Each structure stands twice: as structure tokens, then as C-alpha cells.
Fold this sequence. Notes:
The chain has 5 helices and no strands. It is mainly α and 125 residues long. The model has no long low-confidence stretch (mean pLDDT 81). The relative contact order is 0.18.
Amino acid sequence: MLCHLSALLGLLWWPGIVIGPLIVWQIKKNELPEIDPHGKEALNFQLTFVVLYFIAQIVLGIIAGITFGIGLLWGSPFTFLGSGLGLLSLLGIITLVALVLAVVAGIKANNGEPYKYPFSIKFVK
Length: 125
């Protein structure tokens, strides 16, 4: 359970979303064998989340830059308001989904059930 919920550390410090599950998994995987699959799932999902988040930030920066540049050429002072707000809300949705899935996985792990995150790339096997 702690492997999944340690990702909530990312609310306080952004690298904590990956470092929390990694540390808990590395410390506890030898003590309790049932921690190993949960730790791998949590770490894989959080790494997938970080990769998707950074890709979305790069795309947001490109779109906002292009839109702002076009606005400067056309002379519209309101262009910056619409540049990338849809992608900015997408970043918020991605973050919210990741946090909710971490809590759901923590609850499932506490009940002794295995949990597979959706859309998770298997970085650690």
C-alpha cells in the first residue's frame, strides 16, 4: 500500500512522485515478497506519468509560443489568453488522474488485491 501512496509525495516535491515509490519498493521488496509486484507497478506508472507530463509540457510550450507569436504579428493583445489553455487543463487532468489512480491502487493493495495501472509502460520488469 505504501508503494502506491508514496507517490502522493509528488504533491509536495515533484520528483517525489517517482522517488517515493522507488525508495519504498527498494527498502521493502526483500522483507515482504508481496511488495515487489506492487512496487514495480507503482514505479512503472509514475515513470509513465512523468514522461507523459513532460511531453505535454513541451507541446504546450510549442503551441503557446506559436500562438503568441502569431498574436504579436496580428497585433491582438488577447492572444496569450487562448494559447494552450486546453493543454494546460489537460496537464491538470493528467495529474488528477494519476493521483486518483495511486489512491485506488493503495486501497486495493491494502485489501491484498493486485492492481494493474491502465496505460502503464513497463520500464521495470
